[in-house]
Write a structure and sequence with these properties.
The complex is a heterodimer of chains A (258) and B (401). Chain A contains 8 helices and 10 strands. Chain A is α/β, with parallel strands linked by helices and 258 residues long. The longest helix of chain A is centred in the C-terminal third of the chain and has 16 residues. In chain B, strands 1-2 form a two-stranded antiparallel sheet. In chain B, helix 5 runs antiparallel to helix 13 and helix 10 packs across helix 11. The longest helix of chain B has 28 residues. Classes of the chains: A alpha/beta (258), B mainly alpha (401). At the A-B interface, helix 4 of A face helix 11 and helix 12 of B.
Chain lengths: 258, 401
């Protein structure tokens, strides 16, 4: 491997018609690094994630993996490049069990097309074990019977199983209780320890300070701060989110043009 | 065999099952209750109900409904509805009858049968395309189908009023019975295949160190099926014997059940019913799966129509109408397939059809007219949906949704 970062965004901009959702954003993620993406509602966090995930295509700028630029045009493209997104609404089917959900759309079969139930179950157990997800009692229970934290663990494990190199987590702890949040944050830390690049989108600064190595703050579609967690304070981050200096405010005249 | 721990784990299974039951995982319990209740009620009202002859009758009467209901199960699983299956079965029946008219064309029976099923499959494809590509609600598309295919039946029959079916093979589909020896042989094959598949599956799991059911439970399943199927064969043999359609339905059931539980297509069907968005994000071509589901449902309806025509030995302008559609939907739902999508099994169609046929047959024996029959069947359907809704509520309360 070269010194090039795992994932690099260079001057990424995204317009929706006249609205500029992202403007000239630079960002890097290295292997084993957990980068938190913070910002108020409408700051462009989701747009950024969706651009990397291939749901949106960037208007200008480049997305580089290991130093090489790639055009990501669809969710398939990004999945093929080893980028997995764990969405807020999880995208799990409630009536299927844990194994079925982890393999959904990519089921293993034998030569005759018969599902390899046991092979998939073994593989799923292996991944859950590797990530030390111990709270799930049976992988053959429907996902509906799991708690929010357990479902989040399943979604993350699914991403890891499909050999993700970069995992983007969209508000993974938003709807969780204290203990479940604890489990998910531990899981995020383990992802980093296993050499994956992790982007954590969160509103919760407490969570961010607990697991992130670096904190990137967005405001009005622009990067307003990039802080090292060890030296940064919560106040600094809050200030960046709310008052961060932006080069131009869309829709407002009088701001510095760029 | 180590009996001690086996017994303990069987107890543990029983306890788990009780916990599931309390939180709304009712399984086949409502059906067994319903069947026992109808048996007791009708037998006390009319001594002829539980006679071998009547029970064989009852099974023949439920054959068409259970076939159509099996197809409907798939549609319900993806969270849609198909209101056209009644008249689609009618279209298939009319096409079959018309092609086999002794008018000198001498079409082979097999060709006519294939044509009837192919007609059903094409109708399903048309419905599926309208629903997925034009994004129309299945309720509306198949409601229009209900009317339109009824019209097609009337147009094909024209002024004939009714067509008598004389083709030997078609008539013997419903009109022939297995001899006792053949019936027992069929029973034997079924039991051996079932036992082998269970034992092999268990061995495979053990070799991979995965959790397995206690051996005692496995034995219980095999003995249970042997008792039920053995009783059916013995009782049927006291009368005319097992109707040949039972073999046909068993084969259809085994195939459909395999597709639902052991193929990628099966998982995709369930996933679409559970969360179509999850299925889409998993890269599943949900439109294609849904079109296939409507094609299978209409094909099964066509086979149901063939069975019905074969039993009545004629096709008239009412074919596919009357209570057929509602009985079929009721069968699937009474059997435990949820109208909310994502939950159900091929088994539910057959069990539900048995309940419906029992009630229909029993009320017929009592000499009640269509008015009473429809009212009572309607109430049973309502009760079944109430069980579904309440158990769903129970599951949500227990966090099993």
């Amino acid at each position: 491997m070269t010194d090039a970062p795992l994932l690099e965004l260079r001057g990424v901009s995204k317009n929706f018609g006249a609205v500029q959702a992202l403007k000239d954003v630079d960002m890097t993620i290295n292997p084993g690094e957990i980068v938190a993406l913070v910002g108020d509602n409408g700051s462009g966090k989701s747009t950024l994630v969706k651009s990397v995930a291939g749901i949106h295509q960037v208007s200008s700028g480049a997305i580089l993996l290991n130093g090489e630029p790639f055009a990501i045009r669809s969710p398939r493209d990004s999945a093929d490049l080893g980028i997995q997104v764990v969405y807020q609404d999880l995208a799990l089917a409630d009536n299927l069990d844990v194994v079925e959900n982890m393999f959904l759309g990519r089921e293993q079969t034998n030569k005759l097309g018969k599902l390899d139930h046991n092979g998939m179950e073994c593989r799923a157990l292996e991944v859950l074990d590797q990530l030390a997800v111990t709270t799930i009692r049976s992988v053959r229970q429907p996902v509906a019977s799991l708690s929010g934290g357990q479902r989040q663990s399943v979604a993350v494990s699914k991403a890891v199983m499909w050999s993700a190199k970069i995992v983007l987590l969209d508000e993974p702890t938003a709807a969780l209780g204290v203990e479940q949040t604890r489990h998910v944050l531990d899981l995020v830390l383990r992802l980093g320890q296993q050499g994956l690049g992790v982007v954590l989108i969160s509103h919760n600064l407490h969570d961010v300070f607990e697991v992130a190595d670096r904190i990137v703050a967005l405001r009005l579609g622009q990067k307003v701060a990039e802080l090292d967690r060890r030296t940064a304070t919560q106040t600094e981050v809050v200030e960046a989110i709310t008052f961060g200096r932006v080069s131009s405010v869309p829709g407002q005249s009088g701001a510095t043009t760029s | 065999m180590d009996v001690g721990p086996e017994r303990n784990s069987l107890l543990a299974y029983a306890r788990n099952w009780l916990v599931g039951l309390r939180s709304g995982e009712l399984g086949v319990l409502p059906i067994i209750g319903g069947l026992l209740l109808t048996a007791v009620v009708f037998q006390s009202l009319n001594d002829n109900y539980l006679t071998p002859g009547n029970l064989v009758n009852l099974v023949s009467q439920g054959a068409a409904i259970s076939t159509i209901a099996m197809g409907l199960v798939l549609v319900l699983l993806i969270g849609e509805i198909d209101l056209s299956v009644g008249y689609v079965s009618g279209v298939a029946a009319v096409i079959l009858a018309q092609m086999l008219l002794p008018d000198g064309s001498d079409l082979p029976t097999g060709f006519a049968l294939l044509a009837a099923v192919a007609a059903g499959m094409s109708i399903g494809a048309l419905h599926g395309l309208l629903i997925t590509k034009l994004k129309m609600p299945s309720f509306v598309v198949t409601l229009a189908g209900l009317l339109a295919w009824n019209g097609v039946v009337l147009m094909i029959i024209g002024s004939q009023g009714s067509i008598i079916i004389q083709d030997r093979a078609v008539v013997s589909l419903s009109g022939s019975y297995l001899t006792p020896d053949v019936a027992w042989a069929f029973f034997g094959i079924l039991m051996v295949a079932y036992s082998i598949s269970l034992v092999l599956a268990r061995r495979n799991r053990m070799s991979r160190n995965l959790a397995v059911e206690p051996a005692a439970l496995l034995l219980l399943r095999i003995v249970g099926l042997a008792l039920v199927a053995g009783t059916v064969v013995s009782v049927a043999n006291l009368s005319r014997g097992i109707p040949f359609v039972v073999v046909l339905i068993t084969v259809l059931y085994v195939v459909l059940n395999y597709v639902l539980t052991n193929t990628r297509f099966g998982v995709w069907v369930y996933s679409i019913g559970g969360s179509i968005e999850a299925a889409r994000r998993a890269g599943i071509n949900t439109d294609r799966v849904r079109i296939y589901v409507f094609m299978i449902a209409s094909s099964m309806a066509a086979i149901g129509g063939i069975i019905l025509a074969s039993r009545l030995r004629s096709v008239d302008s009412n074919v596919g109408g009357g209570s057929l559609l509602l009985y079929s939907i009721a069968a699937a739902v009474i059997g435990g397939t949820s109208l909310f999508g994502g939950r159900g099994s091929a088994r539910s169609a057959i069990l539900g059809a048995l309940v419906i046929a029992s009630i229909d047959n029993g009320l017929g024996l009592l000499g009640l007219g269509s008015g009473q029959k429809f009212t009572i069947t309607g109430l049973v359907l309502l009760a079944a949906v109430a069980v579904d809704s309440l158990s769903r509520y129970g599951r949500i309360q227990a966090g099993r949704s």
